[in-house]
Amino acid sequence: MKTISHTDDLLSEEDWKLIRKLLDFPETNFVEQAKLCGLDPARDFQQLDLSNVDFSNCDLRGFDFSGTDLRGAFGVNLTWEVGDPVLDGADTSDSLFTHQLQQQRYFRDHPDDLALVKRLSTDYWANTITRIDDLIQSRNNPVRATKISHAVFAAHKDNSVRTHILFLIRSTSASDSKYFIYDSLSKSWNDPGQTDSCLRILITLFGDSGQPFNWLLKYLKHPDDTVRKTAFFGLIKSPKFTSGLAEIKAYITACRDRVQRRAFVGKTAKLLGSETDAALYNYKEGNYFDFRDTLTRQSLIDTRNPRSFAHIVEEARISKQSINIEVITEEQLQRRIRLIQQFGQAFGIYFKYIIASGTTIELGNNDGISTDRAGPER
Fold it and tell me: Read out DSSP for 30-68?
């Protein structure tokens, strides 16, 4: 964290001790870090730069963020409410706070709509869905329809109503939908169905933008397989993929799903260029290699690009060079192995390969000998 104002004062020895203590602190929870530093939530968090801070698993009640830059703040499994923490003069744009603050302002100015939300939130589910449908489909006042729909989603206890509203927000205001999803994600960690639905909408509508990337990274550690898989595929499609490569790699090396592992290989291979991409592609199966499989000389020959091989042979024929299929095969094989080695060196993901002596090595790993990774596959 840093203050918005600047100072030329030198740090004291006590400050350096605290900095070292914080750097060694294994806990990433914002509130726990604040406690470690002996900071007062009611006094020491005003006029700060906390942009893009991760508030996951925090209870923010009692904090005063007056005048603080909270742009892009995100997090899952939060506890907070409008008015607590204090956000007077804070910049909360594009953050987990945006939706609820906008909702508060709207219903403060439109008390009749608030009364309608209260009625719909306790009405029979079919009546509520019909009324929400009418509001959104009418297109007469899209802002009103969006605000009411989101408020009913937050208040209604019936899952069919909430699922229906999640489906309908695809056709509402993009920015309103994004902030609504942020708000829902910050509260729905223990509801895998709702979480997965929100992530899918976030990826579909905003996957090409940068800010949702931070949210998706959080869900690689979700206890539900489906949620993790949804987040993973959203991340590999994101333009910010490389900025989260360390976290994504940690996830994928422990992942037991072949589909995801192959998708990771395809994504990262492309980063190194078309030749590496082709070297890691199994042209026999029409998919990328799984880094948990063991490669052999014959498997690399059998899965090569047949068109590329035929093209090399044809070029030799046209140039009237002597055509030795075995030599061409060996040259192409060695080039493929070198490219897979370079992939391993670049990403620390090593493909196992059986050499002539029968020993299994890891391509690109100078330490060489591989060990099998246990665990059921899907």
Answer: HHHHHHHTT--TTTTTSSEE-TT-B-TT-B-TT-B-TT-
